[in-house]
């Protein structure tokens, strides 16, 4: 676990000119993330009365390792489940409504577990729930690849500021934020360590990415 | 990237990003619902001054699969046959609000003129201009080569040994040997391929009779040979790309470029004997349309090594990728040097709304 403030690797670098900007704050560490995922795994099993018919679809980039970790925990609790057969990835890039507002995005891959999603319960897994637009795109993407019996949503962090009538079924942590703050989830599989970090934008609005 | 005019403009990173995007597009094309909403409300004009079936249909399919509106324009039966100039045609398209113009023209440089003249604001995609360039064909060839030949060697003669989904993702063509055989002189496909395959790290050998090798070929980043058999034995190419003998660009039977079709076939045709000499993993490609019995025998064209039909399918995915990359994003405030890797930052859920 990392202690103390962590500077996001891809975030803005702070120079003397904007020294008034506070350092990024780590709000969740590795143990808290692990604990939250374990709780979510139990909630998923409880809500769905077991793991039969479950499919966990991770939304690239950081939803994918989160979905894998959840699947491992599900398989630990329910011995009949095979973690690898539960997990898929769902790319939503081509269904987004903000494509024309920024440079072209890299398209991730969509891989469904064997058996597809028809008639099963899909749990969408993402790192940060914010405006809800990614989830809207994901719902559209799902309707193009099949017809699940139900769709549920798991997010590691809910930072609020929803712009659409979407709410999560499973949340790791509710994180009140202001619109100008950046919330960054770092995962060992991608970033080398586990942490959730809040940082203030630079004076030039670098948080607009 | 605002336009796609020539493969010479593409950096290795650009090319790999197009091929990777194409791989994701191809994955969506095996679904029951193939249509994506990505380019909803955008208009793509297919402006074809020269005959074409597969390229036009391929672009039309690609645009429709991305939900763009497609307007087909062919010179025959339009005002062009009444003598309208390219400029006036372009101004008409501009007035109609085209977001992308896919242009095929018999004159080399027509797409460049359209893109740089200021007549239209839209993205311009070159779908073949004269004997100059055909970038999307080269991209689909590179995609096909990468899919089949990256990673471990498979026996190309075994139809069951198809490449895995996502094969070669993120990679280039370093170390692969490609022979491009036939009418190089008239071939925009060869020109585009030589540049793109070189950019991606492949070694290209052109094989053609001396009369069908263009002047100035020594400046191209490739080797040139006049003997197909020598190249097949000495170079042991991983991919053999047969080019169509473009008889419509020659005056009579061989147009003075070769003594007779039979002699051409004997020296440069891919027949049963040459097919048997290829390494096990070598694939056979052809941009189409084929002259069966001239540059390629029916046996070669129908062999399991031939990926000619797959090239057509890959063409749709590659053109979807090009349309996506040119039309989906907002280029207005993009720094020219910015490439795909730096855009990954924007996928973080920061306060970017």
Would you list the SSEs of chain B in sequence order as H and E? HEHEHEHEHEHEEHEHHEHHH
Figure out the total of helices of chain A: 5
The CATH superfamily of the largest domain in chain B appears as: Aspartate/ornithine carbamoyltransferase
* Helix run count of chain B: 12
What shape does the CA trace of chain A take?
Answer: globular
Task: Kindly identify the CATH topology of chain A.
Answer: Rossmann fold
Q: Biggest sheet of chain A, in brief?
A: 5 strands, parallel
* CATH top level assignment of chain A: Alpha Beta
Number of strands of chain A: 8
Tally of individual domains of chain A: 1
Largest binding interface between chains: A-B, 39 and 35 residues
Rounded Rg of chain A: 18 Å
Look up the CATH topology of the largest domain in chain B.
Rossmann fold
Mean residue pLDDT of chain B:
88
How many angstroms separate the termini of chain A? 27 Å
- Stretches of chain B where pLDDT is under 50 for at least 5 consecutive residues are 333-353
- What's the total count of β strands of chain B? 9
Q: What is the string of helix and strand elements of chain A?
A: EHEHHEEHEEEHE
Query: Helix content range of the residues of chain A, please?
Result: 25-40%
Strand order of the largest sheet of chain A: 3-2-4-5-6
